[in-house]
Amino acid sequence: MLSDDCVFCKIIKGQIPSTKVYEDEKMLVFKDIEPKANVHLLAVPKDHFKLLSQMDEIRAQTLSYMLAKIPQIAAQNGCANGYRLVINQGDDAGQTVFHLHIHILGGENLPW
Ligand code: 5GP
Ligand code: ZN
């Protein structure tokens, strides 16, 4: 299920433009609008839920599916030499978009 008032759901529905690098029936990967590394992609499930803390068995299956796809997607998009995956959970992590997403950061020797 997608949400009407979520920026990533709007990107999934094509209501907000994005630079997509991979899409299938379960997930979408697109470029972050404010990249924090030479390569900064966001991988999102095509199912709206806000937080990693809302994980359940079905959602965990989707996350597992995404993790199985990400290495090839990353390698094909400038991260053949390595990358970092990040999930921000909640306010202390600085989460700003409340639709679960995995940051894929790479394309350089990450400075932190
Ligand atoms: P968070 O801090 O919630 O983990 O990360 C949200 C990320 O989404 C940020 O890196 C931010 O730059 C990115 N972002 C927010 N709005 C948009 C948008 O409309 N389009 C794209 N491509 N990225 C966005
Ligand atoms: Zn959403």
List the uncertain runs: none
Radius of gyration: 13 Å
The proportion of residues in beta strands is 15-25%
- Number of contiguous helices: 2
Structural class: alpha+beta
**Span from first to last CA?**
36 Å
Q: How would you sum up the major sheet?
A: 5 strands, antiparallel
Mean pLDDT across every amino acid position = 97
Fold and architecture overview:
23% of the residues lie in helices and 22% in strands. It is α+β, with helices and mostly antiparallel strands. A five-stranded antiparallel β-sheet has the order 1-2-3-5-4, covered by helices on one side. Strand 2 (27-31) and strand 3 (39-45) form a beta hairpin. The termini are far apart. Bound molecules: guanosine-5'-monophosphate and zinc ion (ZN).
Descriptive labels:
single chain; 112 residues; alpha+beta; 5-stranded antiparallel sheet; 2 helices; globular; binds guanosine-5'-monophosphate; binds zinc ion; Histidine triad nucleotide-binding protein; catalytic activity; HIT-like; HIT-like_sf; Histidine_triad_CS
Task: Summarize the structure in short.
The protein has 112 residues and is of the alpha+beta class. It contains 2 helices and 5 strands. InterPro entries: Histidine_triad_CS, Histidine_triad_HIT, HIT-like, HIT-like_sf.
